[in-house]
Amino acid sequence: MKTIKIIVLIACTCWILNCLAANTKCLETQNPVKVDLYLYFWPTGINGDVSAYKHSAHTNITFDDILSNLRMGATGAIKVTKNNWFIFNDAIYMDVAPDVKETLPHDIQVNAKLDNRVLADLLAIGYQWQTTVPWNLFAGVRYFYGRVKLDATAALGPFQEKASVVQSDNWLIPTIGGDVDLPICRQLSFDVIADVGAVSHNFNWELIPAFFWQFNNNFSVAAGYRLLDVYHHENDFKLATLIHGPIIGAKITF
Q: Considering only CA atoms, which of 61, 165, 80 is closest in space to residue 124?
């Protein structure tokens, strides 16, 4: 079932891109296709609760801790625009392994090692209005994959109880959102992106306020803040975390 969901998501992306390519000429100057590539660094803090089966742990990673606990991370997005329509894909991958407090089934708290992996990918289609204050609306689906591994040892008198569990799950959430671009001066603008998604046992919202400084028609840099709140509780797996932190990056336009 998990493989089928991934295949369907990839197939939808390829079909939409193929439709855009089949109905446009890249060399046409009147209605060209524009491609925006976003690359950014996101040192995050993670606050919340995770659980696998009957084991739970609280995560509280600050900005100072993320580099020492982060084993791998990747973020990026691509936006393809034709006339006023666009398709947008945003991907986040995070693999962190902090020391946490784990609650064993007997309500005993012990020191533990948490292996937490999160993949989030948003695929959306939208329409933009080129007014004095440009803005757009979009709708799509966000795919999540979460994996939790907890390792701990509790001393119970002369005995020791070891806990080591691994649990993963993936889910899809219909998502709607919008983007407002507020011009400040010729080169500087303030951009706000917000979206929300909900389905049974799942809810998430996201907010990204950022400043963009445009050097030319093809390159600009960005600085802002990103918050992604995720709640999922199903199949003995719980992920309820707020992922947040400053973003620094660049936008390249082709």
A: 80
Q: 245 is written with which tokens?
A: 């932190």
Q: Could you give the percent of the chain with pLDDT greater than 90?
A: 52
Q: What is the pTM of this model?
A: 0.81
| CATH, domain 2-24+32-253, list 2.40.128.90, 3.40.190.10, 3.10.520.10, 3.40.50.970 | 2.40.128.90
CA 220 – CA 232 distance, rounded (Å): 36
- Shortest CA distance to 97 belongs to which of 34, 42, 50? 50
Where exactly are the structural domains of the chain? 2-24+32-253
pLDDT band at 126 (very low <50, low <70, confident <90, very high): very high
Q: For residues 102 and 215, give the distance between their C-alpha atoms in angstroms, rounded to a whole number.
A: 49
Residue 158 has pLDDT above 80, yes or no: no
Residue at token pair 């996201």? 206
